[in-house]
Amino acid sequence: MSFAFSGAVSLRGPAMKAVIASSGEQAWQLQDVPVPEPAENQVLIRVHASGVCYNDLHQSRGTPGHEPAGEIVAVGPGVRSRCVGDRVGVLLWQSACGRCEWCQRDKPLFCSHIVGTSMHLPGSHAEYMLAYADATVLLPEGLTYEQAAPLFCAGYTAYAGLRAADPRPGETVAVVGIGGLGHLAVQYAKASGFRTIAVTQSTDKETPISDLGADEIVRDGRALAAVGGADVVLGTSRSMSAQSDAMQGLRPEGRMVIMGLGSAPLEVSAGQLIMKRARIVGSQHNGREYLYQVLDFAARGKVTAVTESYDLAEAAAVRERLLEGAVRFRAVLVM
Ligand SMILES: [Zn+2]
Ligand SMILES: [Zn+2]
After folding, report:
1. Residue 180 CA: which ligand is closest?
2. For the chain, how long is the longest CA-to-CA vector?
3. Which ligand does the CA of 118 lie closest to?
4. Ion ligand 1 — residues with CB under 5 Å?
5. Closest ligand to 260 CA?
6. What's the CATH number of domain 155-282, 3.40.630.30, 3.50.50.60, 3.40.50.300, 3.40.50.720?
7. What is the DSSP letter of 114?
8. CB of 5 within 8 A of CB of 34?
9. CATH class of 15-151+286-334
10. CATH 3.40.50.720 residue ranges for the chain
């Protein structure tokens, strides 16, 4: 599998606009590239909305974007379960080898031949994208493309992380970092009935965070401990020091779920971990059941992604805003 476009292309068939990433100063450029054709078991999607995840910034080639929502406009040979006109989103992890130990154990996430959107197939910051039909998910009726898009990474990650902590009735959930993932994590914890505490240094976010339903807002792990601590801490910040700091607020037998991916190492006090018999859990997209529930929460109006929309042509500027930390919750490119 390789990127369909890189460098100069000669346009014979129909063309489309797509963001092309490079590692240079002009890191994202809008280019005219050919509209791809669906191969066997693939569909062609006209992308209507594409959420911008922080991980897009690490991509140095091909088309970034792995939070797509759009409409199927063509199906390749062998596609039976999808048809033209279906409203869909696409999984980040689209297909795997089907033969290795992890595929046999129905855990394709661990397959070394896994195919990822924007990694092995061009991503969704484009007017059209290809996806394996089996990796598309039908959108509930009434859910807009712009609302649906951020759920395919941010929402899915946040809710799967909550479930990975195996929260029990009556427990308290804290969310560290209230950005793209965190603002959804607060809402999932509330919608699931847990007392929910937001842990954030951004005091300018206090009003919008109370609007999300947080019962309390504290600045750090010490303050979290002072209000009684949390049984589950969802680490959605890219600051690894903020995540390790928050562990001070873990209650005995608490679970710390690491979702935010920073470059620094995670520092942990072994003493705290042992004395509290706490657990640290790494988590990402843990299974389609969780994505189904995420879409259902959104369709029932229980959880709302707070988005700011931009035209695809503004993608490079959106990238800058994200780097500057100027995007409050989730930026979405709309086409
Ligand atoms: Zn992502
Ligand atoms: Zn495999």
Report:
1. 1
2. 66
3. 1
4. 53, 55, 153
5. 1
6. 3.40.50.720
7. -
8. yes
9. alpha beta
10. 155-282
pLDDT, tens digit, for every residue of 26-77? 899 999 999 999 999 999 999 999 999 999 998 999 999 999 999 999 999 9
Residue-wise pLDDT for 131-178, tens only, equals: 999 999 999 999 999 999 999 999 999 999 999 999 999 999 999 999
Q: For residues 167 and 251, give the distance between their C-alpha atoms in angstroms, rounded to a whole number.
A: 13
Task: Enter the DSSP assignment of 117.
Answer: B
Helix extents (H) in the chain = 101-104, 145-148, 154-164, 182-191, 206-212, 221-226, 240-246, 270-276, 288-299, 315-323
How far apart are the CA of 228 and the centre of ligand 1, in A? 32
Amino acid at 156: Y
Instruction: Encode burial over 304-320: b for 16+ CB neighbours within 10 A, e otherwise.
Output: ebebeebebebbeebbe
Note the ligand closest to the C-alpha atom of 109: 2
